[in-house]
Amino acid sequence: MRIGIAGIAGRMGRLLAEEVQAAGAILSGGTLRPGSRAEPPAGLPIQPDAAALFAASDIVIDFTHAEEAVPHAELAARSATPLVLGSSGLSAAQERAVAEAAQLVPVVHAANFAPGVNLVLALAEKLAAALPAEAYDAEIVEMHHRQKVDAPSGTALAMGRAVAAGRGTTLEAAGMESGRDGHTGARRTGSIGFAALRGGQVVGEHTLLFAAATEHIAITHRSFDRRSYAVGAVRAAQWIIGRRPGLYSMMDVLGMR
Ligand SMILES: NC(=O)C1=CN([C@@H]2O[C@H](COP(=O)(O)OP(=O)(O)OC[C@H]3O[C@@H](n4cnc5c(N)ncnc54)[C@H](OP(=O)(O)O)[C@@H]3O)[C@@H](O)[C@H]2O)C=CC1
Ligand SMILES: O=C(O)C1=N[C@H](C(=O)O)C[C@H](O)C1
Question: Matching HAMAP family, A to Z (predicted)?
Fold first, then answer.
């Protein structure tokens, strides 16, 4: 199996290259951002552009940037090359375009490829179904390294969606309260709150709180090593081969639904 890696010089790209090789797959190459000054990992094949990467690969893994998600999904559909997509911060229109491409080619898009986070997402939905939204306010706090460019994190949004699903609604309908500042007014019942911290080299921390008048429940997931994401993404790449076109999640890969 030939696996290609978009953004091979990135924090995730480098680890993905190692994990593809550790899994015994062939690393068909990687791409750099046009004009990039980043040093690619020594000895790894660099493709001139994304089209060449897709042509040389049986599967492509993309952990780059939201802006690349749609062009990469379209290339995947055109070349019938399954895609494992990890980038976060996609707009609603970008999410829709990826879903459209996934009608033609299998795509795994996950906010977080670490197995533990996916268990937390399942738990979040169950807790939200059991705890009345009128009494238990759902708040999500996340912290990441100072280089992260999008907020709230994709994982925090996935937690919000899981809570909304448990309450029989959507995140959009429930309402997001994000980045509170100034005279915000009182919290709206049923809305889902988000707070994003950035600093140092925190790999990724997420806490989901259900806060009521007399008690609160908190579930925290902490990632200490990006390798758990890379191992999960390579597992998704091995799983996706031979699947029907469609948009899959890490829950599908882990057999959790
Ligand atoms: N789903 C998951 O489990 C996880 C998802 N992520 C997500 O993966 C993405 C990448 O994270 P990370 O590896 O930390 O980021 P980095 O900035 O370290 O790496 C991004 C790589 O993509 C390249 N790139 C290509 N096109 C673009 C573009 N348009 N804008 C910016 N970079 C581009 C960069 O090139 P250059 O080197 O020239 O800048 C770089 O090599 C993020 O969206 C992050 O949120 C991260 C970890 C886990
Ligand atoms: O940018 C990161 O680093 C991470 N991004 C993902 C997200 O936005 O949730 C996953 C993980 O938290 C690390």
Answer: DapB
Residue 71 preceded by cis peptide, ω within 30: no
User: What number of other Cβ atoms are within 10 A of residue 50's Cβ?
Assistant: 22
Q: ipTM score here?
A: 0.98
Would residue 65 show up in a list of annotated catalytic residues for this protein?
Answer: no
Residues of the chain with CATH 3.30.360.10: 115-223
Residue of 72, 144, 206, 221 marked catalytic: 144
**111 annotated binding-site participant:** yes
If you ran DSSP here, which 8-state letter would residue 243 be given?
P
- C-beta of 154 in contact with ligand 2 (< 6 A): yes
Q: Which of 153, 161, 220, 222 to mutate to test the pocket of ligand 2 (most atoms within 8 A of CB)?
A: 153
Could you please state the CATH topology (level 3) that the domain comprising 115-223 is classified under.
Answer: Dihydrodipicolinate Reductase; domain 2 (3.30.360)
**Does ligand 2 come within 6 angstroms of the Cβ of 86?**
no
